[in-house]
Amino acid sequence: MRRFQDEQGGEWIATVARHEGMDYKGAFHLVMTPADGSAPVELQDIRWNTERTARRTLETMSVVELRRRLRSARGRAPVA
């Protein structure tokens, strides 16, 4: 788990989630949740085969990279 701030100063928590299924390849993906507990942003295109690798990658990602990934995912979100 990593806490970081977006460009506007909003607090976010980056975590790893598991996609249940028969195939282990890419079973883990990145999830970013606002610290206020509102709806998370799931980044299904950022995937890992093991939780260990996912957590290690998340721990070493820079804040700039986390912000870039969040901005990209929010830009692709469907408009309600």
Written overview of the protein:
The protein has 80 residues and is an alpha+beta fold. It has helices spanning 51-60, 63-76, and strands at 2-5, 11-18, 28-34, 41-48. Helices cover 30% and strands 34% of the residues. The protein is globular. The termini are far apart. The mean pLDDT is 88.
SSE blueprint:
Elements: E1 2-5, E2 11-18, E3 28-34, E4 41-48, H1 51-60, H2 63-76
Antiparallel strand pairs: 1-2, 2-3, 3-4
Give a concise summary:
This protein is an alpha+beta fold and 80 residues long.
The value of Rg in angstroms is 13 Å
Helix count equals 2
Q: List SSEs in N-to-C order.
A: EEEEHH
Low-confidence stretches: none
List keywords for this structure.
4 strands; 2 helices; alpha+beta; 80 residues; 30% helix
